[in-house]
Every structure is written in C-alpha cells, then in structure tokens.
Design goal:
- It is globular and about 60 Å long.
- By secondary structure, the protein is an alpha+beta fold.
- Helix 4 packs across helix 8 and helix 8 crosses helix 9.
Length: about 300
C-alpha cells in the first residue's frame, strides 16, 4: 500500500452504502453492523492486491454478498407480524414473544444523504419484508439492479456470476415479488409527504392516552403490531380495545421524533420512578392523510443504536 491513511479513507467511503445493502439483505440493523465490519476487515486484507480502483465498488459488494450469504444460510426468514398471521380479535395484552431473529427491524436512514437520494419506497419496512421472501442470491441481484440501478455487467461481477445468470436471477426475483401477496404490500405506497399536523395529533393523543382521539387518526382498517410479539390488531374497535388494555403501561409516556425507513417514527419512553426509560419505537405508515399502520418495535437496544438517550 502506498498511503495507508488514504487507503483506509478510500475503503471507508463505501461503508454507508455497504450498510444499506447489508440491511436490505439481512433486515436487521444489528446484523448489518456486524456484516459491514466483517466486510471491511476482509476487504482491507486484499486492498493492495486490487490493481484497478474502478473495480473496487463491485469488489467490496461481492465480499459483502458472501458475508450476508454466510449469515443467511443458518437463519430463517424475517417478517412483519401482519405477514405471519391473521389479526388478533378480540384484542388482548400480548404476553408471548417470538425469537428476535424472526422479525424485520427498523434502521435509521436520516443521517445518510445517499440513502435519502434512493427511492423512498426501497427503504420502507414493507419493501424490506418483501425482500426477505426471495432466495438470498436473488435478493442480492434485485437490490443491486433495482435499488442501486447497477448495470448488468457490474452486478454480475459483484455476484461472481455471468451476465446471463444475473439477468435470470433478476427476472425470477421480480416474478417472486409480484406473486408474494404479502399483507404488508399495502403499506409500500405511503404518502409522499408527511402530514406534520397528523403527527402532532398522534403525539398529543398518545401522551394523554386520549384513546378515542388516537383511534380516530387511523383508517377504518388501520392496524398496529408490536414485534417481537407475534400478535397484531386491526380495525377501530380492536385498536381501541387494545389501547385501553395497555393504557396503564403507556400512561405518562413521552414520544421523541425519529426518521426511520423513510417514514416518521417516535421513540416511546415510559415512567420508571422519577425518570422515563426506553420502551418501544413507533414507526408510522401514513396513507391518504391518516394512519394505515403503526409498527411498535419493543427492543431497548434500538435506542442506543439510534443515538437516543438511555433515560429522560
């Protein structure tokens, strides 16, 4: 290597794009963190052997693909609760959880300008869930071609396959997505602009636990889920029943705004003595000026990962 510092900087410039790629492959921000770090280490070991700088982007993505494929060999499909079962009715307080590695989890894209430039629907949680239906290699090809708009040759180089094989994998991936019929598919076409007044009303109603006002913000078929709890509820009657059943836990909560997966979100803190402690992340899906769905992710580790305080 001629200049180690310059080489490190050259390699590190790929980190944000690699993270978005690995997140779409693995559907977990924590798994993506580990996969990117593994990719960077492997790439650094062979960095001085790559004679053509223009080939580095495809090369590091080829390494990242192998890292992700290795991880996916021993894991099952991640999903959103609404794609795994029918809604619970009547609504009830959730008690049993499913393994954390079975769910699609959110990612913070707010501080990454390149992520903002990518098509908004390709970071939506419903799109991430749809990707998980695909076999891993088809998933990788579709991300490179349809999300990053890579040429067929560059994609084939990154995948270590022929152009014909890459094109065939892309066609099969598109066909599988078209036939998947996931319930969450309806959430992919969210509002292009965020209704800030709607969000203010959501925060006010939730923090005051004004259940009628809160439920009125949802579509008639609006819904709510709480990974890692597999249950979810749909419709005004069951939403209201669920909110009443959990009101004792949410009383006194505060919501802190976030931007996750191209959609508005809030971090919920609940009372714990004289302070408030992390509880869940609300990711809102908006459609037609109302709430279509709220994903409430119950994992305190997300707060630290997204740079949120451990206490309020």
């Amino acid at each position: 290597m001629g200049d180690p510092e310059a080489d490190v900087a050259d390699l590190e410039r790929f980190r944000p794009e690699l993270h978005r790629y690995c997140y779409r492959m693995l559907a977990s921000v924590f798994d993506a963190d580990d996969a990117v770090q593994d990719t960077i280490i492997r790439a650094w070991r062979g960095w001085d052997q790559l004679a053509e700088p223009s080939a580095r982007r495809a090369w590091v993505h080829r390494i990242a693909t192998h890292v992700c494929l290795d991880r996916l060999r021993s894991s099952g499909r991640r999903a959103l609760p609404m794609d795994m079962s029918d809604p619970t009715s009547p609504a009830m307080v959730p008690s049993e959880t499913a393994p954390m590695e079975g769910w699609v989890w959110p990612a913070d894209m707010a501080g990454d300008p390149a992520a903002q430039a990518e098509r908004r629907e390709t970071v939506r949680l419903a799109f991430i869930a749809a990707l998980q239906v695909l076999p891993p290699r088809q998933r990788a090809v579709l991300i490179l071609r349809d999300v990053y708009s890579w040429p067929a040759r560059e994609t084939a180089d990154a995948m270590g396959m022929t152009v014909a094989a890459a094109n065939s994998a892309l066609q099969r991936a598109r066909a599988t997505l078209d036939a998947s019929r996931l319930r969450s598919e309806a959430l992919r076409a969210g509002d292009a602009t965020v209704d800030r007044e709607l969000l203010d009303r959501y925060v006010a109603a939730f923090e005051r636990q004004n259940i009628p006002a809160l439920v009125a913000l949802f579509h008639e078929d609006g819904s709510l889920s709480m990974p890692p709890f597999p249950m979810w509820v749909s419709g005004h009657r069951d939403l209201a029943e669920f909110q009443r059943a959990t009101a004792h836990h949410c009383a006194g909560s505060r919501l802190v705004p976030l931007d996750l997966n191209g959609a508005p979100a809030f971090a919920q803190y609940v009372p714990a003595g004289e302070r408030l402690q992390p509880w869940g992340i609300h990711a809102l899906e908006l459609r037609g000026g109302r709430i279509a769905h709220v994903h409430t992710f119950i994992d305190a580790a997300l707060f630290g990962r997204f740079g949120l305080p451990a206490r309020l």
